[in-house]
Structure formats: C-alpha cells, structure tokens
Amino acid sequence: MSTPLIDNLANWLNRLPGIGVKTAQRLAYHVLSMPEEDVRRLASALVDARENVKYCPRCGNFTEGELCAVCSDAKRDPTVVCVVRDARDVAFMERMREYRGLYHVLGGTLSPMDGVGPENIRIAPLLERVGNEGVKEVILATNPDVEGEATAAYIARLLKPTGVCVTRIAHGIPIGGNLEYVDEITLFKAIENRREV
To answer: Which domain holds residue 34?
Structure first.
C-alpha cells in the first residue's frame, strides 16, 4: 500500500533519467526509511546544486565560479578545443585523464525533426572562440549517432574556411552509443586515433 505522498515522491523520482517506475518506488520507500536529517541534507544538496551550479560563459561546462575548472586551468592547451554535446560529456572525457586541451559544450545536437537547428545550440560561440582565441585544432567529439554525425559534419563545413585543423574522434565508440557508457580505454583510443574531417 502506498499513499498519495509516497506516489508523488515516486512520480518525481521516476522523472529522472534511467529511473523506471519500480526503481522510483524503491527509492521513495528508501527515502522514507532514511533518518530525517539525511533527507533534509539530500533535499538541501538538490536545492544547493540547482541554485549554485551554472554554465561556464566561455565553454558551457558546469561551474560554481566565474569560469569552470578546465577553463581556469593555466596548464591546459588553449589551442585545442574538444567539442561535446553537453556538460556531462566533459566529465566523461576527463575520466581518461589524457586530454589536456579545452572544451566547448554545444548544449545539444542538430535535429531538424525535433526543431533543433544551428541557432538553438552553441555553434556561433564556437566559431567566435576559433576566430578570437588562437585555436589550432577543433576535435569533434559528438556522439556517433545520426544527430551527432550531422552536427559534426555541419561544424566541420563551417570551420574548413578558417584554416583550423578539424578532427573527429575515431569510431572506437559504437555507432548509436553515448560517451557516458564508454570505458576510459575505448575513449582514449578514440581520441588518440581521431582523424581530420
């Protein structure tokens, strides 16, 4: 037996990605069994993160400060920019601990069927960065699915006239896969074997 409050909690948990109805119900019952102070800390952590984490104005990654940790790291190579779909992809790329350049987060991929065109994602700021920041190489690391490939091809066409080297991560990542599900070695090989587009 559940109650309207338990159902409401489970419904909200079910809205999270990867959380099905049964998992949401288990989580709801787990939250109810937690000490009240822990529940308050969890709720506070959710609100704190939502209120204080924002997008880096330079690259679009998550940050709590003026610039994200990657953009403010002086040891990074500012001449190489890796383009990814969203901010969580930066975290997945950073897991391999080998890439030392900067990032540019698009905030999505081109998808005409869903009404997402070039003006709806951060392509213009990427072109501006390439023109103003001395970028020598742009690595296109969008997912190897239809939308990711189309976005990479579109950006490559836009960047060709600039003379910057445009590379695409190698297809060691399965077609239709997502960066978040790829192990560090496969991701390292994919970026190590990238090719010019």
So the answer is: 4-52
